[in-house]
Amino acid sequence: MSFFDEDENLQRISALLTAKAVAAFRERGVPEEQFGFVLLQPGQQGERPRGTALRAGWRSYPCSLVKVFFLVAAQAALEAGQLVEHEELDRAMRDMILWSSNSATNYVIDLLSGTSGDTLLSSAEMTAWGERREAVNRFFDQLGWPELAGINLNQKLMDDLRYGREKIGLDRSPGGHNALTPVAMARLMHEIFHGSALSTTTRRAVEPLLARDLASPFVKRGAYQVSGYLAGGMPAGTQIWSKAGRTRWLGDERADFRRHDALRAILPGGQEFTLTVFTQGEAIAEDDDFLPSLGALAAGQLMPPASAGQ
């Protein structure tokens, strides 16, 4: 049983999103099975959200979407007294979301797990190191969300191949690379903004870090993750909270050529929705128009006709 209820109008929009994606994937010679999404709208006065999905449980290398999970885990650890607040941690949490910094993310992971990636360790020491690196997996396991089945959150973020402890740790990891699914990402986004499983303190700390501004001078910079992503298809005046990610060639086919996004939007007319999209394939990962076109389609279908035409 999913955390959302199926909705007829969203199913209609789902069919349009699917048709658009299938056409784009076929044109580029990418298997359509390498595409999945979840589309949600919040329920009224504490009701369950309404939603629809395609390949919601597709397990994929998550690119930088995983950074939202690390952010939530770090904020929860601060609240529990397991981490001590300091300026460098604040800066790292901001930069791993705002600019999708891998260096900032890896600093946060070191603090959460009590590990570092460096020179080689003995076999016994590597076993202990690997157990510590499971800290974020353990945090999300205890939440008991069925939508998180199959995810993995024990690896650092790299721009290419891994070396030393990070390579050995990946080889030994039961879950392999970090992994998410469209529905796992959708569940976390819902809980941040509308759920009750995370504490109010954690939610209030996370929300502003995910905000994007369509009027920002940084919009044209790829690191800001608006241009080329779902947010790039939103009409002016939309309020946006998002986290996206993309990999090109990394030298590891298990992680190469992904482009994903998780967007919460409040349209100018007040209509709110969350859309998480996962894609795989070089031609799609290199396409700056695909995700904005999906975002524009969803927004246009959810806005009243008069508003959509403005």
What are the SSEs and their pairings?
Elements: E1 5-6, H1 8-28, E2 35-41, E3 50-54, H2 66-80, H3 87-98, H4 102-113, H5 123-132, H6 135-141, H7 165-172, H8 182-193, H9 200-206, E4 211-212, E5 239-247, E6 258-266, E7 272-279, H10 282-285, H11 290-302, H12 305-308
Parallel strand pairs: 1-3
Antiparallel strand pairs: 2-3, 2-7, 4-5, 5-6, 6-7
Helix pairs in contact: 1-11, 2-4, 2-9, 3-4
Can you describe this structure?
This protein is α+β, with helices and mostly antiparallel strands. The chain has one domain (5-303): 3-Layer(aba) Sandwich (Beta-lactamase), CATH 3.40.710.10. Helix content is 40%, strand content 14%. The chain contains twelve helices and seven strands. Strands 1-3-2-7-6-5-4 form a seven-stranded mixed sheet, with helices on both faces. Helix 2 crosses helix 4 (102-113), helix 2 crosses helix 9 (200-206) and helix 3 (87-98) packs across helix 4. The longest helix is centred in the N-terminal third of the chain and has 21 residues, at 8-28. The chain is globular. The termini are far apart. The mean pLDDT is 96.
Return residue spans where pLDDT drops below 50 for at least 5 consecutive residues: none
**Percent range of helical residues:** 40-55%
Question: What integer value in Å does the Rg equal?
Answer: 19 Å
Number of helices: 12
Q: Per DSSP, what share of the residues sits in E-state strands of 2 or more residues?
A: 5-15%
Mean pLDDT: 96
Question: Could you say what the CATH architecture is?
Answer: 3-Layer(aba) Sandwich
The first-level CATH class is given as Alpha Beta
Query: How many distinct folded domains?
Result: 1
Please state the overall shape, judged from the principal axes of the Cα atoms. Answer: globular
